[in-house]
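Why does residue order matter? Because the sequence determines the fold. Keep that principle in mind as you read this record.
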Amino acid sequence: MTTADRDRDRGRERRRFVRRPTTDHGLTALLGLLVFLIFVIQPLAEIGVVGRFVTSIFFSLMLVAGVWAVGGRRGPALILGALVSIALAVRWGALYFGHGPLILASILAEVFCISVVVIVLTEVFRGGRVTFHRIRGAVAAYLLLGLTFAFAYEMITLKWPDAFTFANARPTMPDALISHFVYFSFVTLTTLGYGDVTPNHPIARSLVTVEALIGQLFPAILLARLVSLELLHEERRAAEEIRR
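Structure:
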């Protein structure tokens, strides 16, 4: 392959990258904020090191990064932008006025997480070369799945307070409650099952079962898909080089 051919192939790859429905830097920001929010801010908030204001800032940044990540598609970006605007208004209104519709805030966060997961996974599983961009998207989608179920568990608890049994005293503050469910969600997603949180309500048990199944199937399907895409891409490239 000549230098001109390589430059032409790189140009095609860049043009395909620009047309992708997700934004590379947006996915990077989303993944970084997700990791920091889940594994740093939430535990610090639960032990009282950081307050609701700091937690709300990072949660808001995560929502904005999610809109940025799907900015390549105007329709989904506009819908997510409107959803994020409402979610931010509800969350910051509850922070400043001391009250707010917690179930509405959880529903908005739930819809946001599901929407971003669907859009990102559509991009991850599409045909073409497997890039670091796709790997970041897959990791971000996995973390968003954990948050999706955490918000679902919070909604169930707000509707049925005895839906879950906690080994220690049941948290009463909203930030502490969602922090417990973030922990419980990822324990369930990875099928660790420490037993310190037990679902009692039938809907809660059903969701826990679904999350455990997704936690088993997602990595296997993801790895198989990415490996097959990379092999197919290499085969096509080898065939093009032979034809030349």
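The CA atoms of residues 189 and 215 lie 5 Å apart.
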